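Exercise 7. Given the components listed, write out the predicted structure of the assembled complex. Treat all entries as one system.
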Amino acid sequence: MAILFTVLLILGVVGTVTVRFAGPQTLRNELQQSALPLAWLVAITATAGSLYFSEVAGYTPCEFCWYQRIAMYPLVLTLGVAVRRQDPTVIYSAIPLAVVGALIALYHYQLQLFPDQSSLCSSGAPCTFRWIETFEIVSIPLMAFVSFSLIIMLLLINNRTRPVPEEPHR
Amino acid sequence: MLFAGVIGIVIFAIVLGFFLSGDSEDYSEDIEVASVTLSGWPLPVFQGSPDQAIGARAPAISTKTTLDETVKLNPADGIARVIGFFAHWCPHCQREIPRITAWLDENNLPNRVEVIIISSAVDSTAPNYPPSAWLRREGWQGPILVDNAATDIATGYGLSGFPYWVVLGGEGKVITRTHGALSDAEFSSLVDQALQSLTNNTENR
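Answer.
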């Protein structure tokens, strides 16, 4: 399952960047129209993935895993409501949340890369612990960082979320 | 159209993932954890200096080794002990064990001083399982005592993190405790303190 989540993320990032910057106009337009639902789908998949790893695979979430969950799980609700209501203001709440989550995930990932920042493993679930290691570099925090980054990217290119500037009154 | 296509790919991938996810290899845990009994008051959790457990009598332990041999460890039997608690998944423990085994190979332990390894917090889903294989692979020659699944021995000795060392004098009282990776000099110091406790006891008689 870890490999499949990783491959999905890679396809998502590569696909989004390729279509946005090098794809035909029709595909770019379709991406812009679908970006908000796609961001919601990324949040759902990331949430489902984190629950699979903890509740099915049995991996214990550490402190930083919980902080990342706090940033990701509300995005499922806020982006879902925004998709339903076509709410252009979701960008103001979702992007800060995703940025915070991305920064925490990045910090968590470097803790795994450089565990000697501490000389001690906590007796519970240490955050230096690499429960999965796909292709020898991809761990859960790195997948979380890419998920948050993909959500940010999609929200920024979604033209339906940009508030339409008001025309000046005459 | 694009969104529907992406939805389809994601659903297909997840379904495929569930079908391809095989059961993890089933390791027997009979020799990695055991039923344990502690007799006596538990030590307070180690929180650095000043250590409230200094001078306190450590609880006696009844457990098994990874070879399924019953061990009854009475701390007050006149033997000073340097007891190390290790978790197989802890990267600091993984770096510590080869240093300890190398030190023991190069240095003779004084008489009536023992170094004991206790494997605790065993997790069959975590890397570097099983701990018995890991410790043998790293050259540990002595017995490996095992904790139970609830880590009662570690808790009873006040563990707050891995790796964790408790030095007991011959009368079973705590001489010192420490946690985290140790240098060779620091480990030597633990052995010296254990030996010193025996000397002090002899002089006081």
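Discussion: The longest helix of chain A spans residues 25-56. Residues 2-157 of chain A form one domain.
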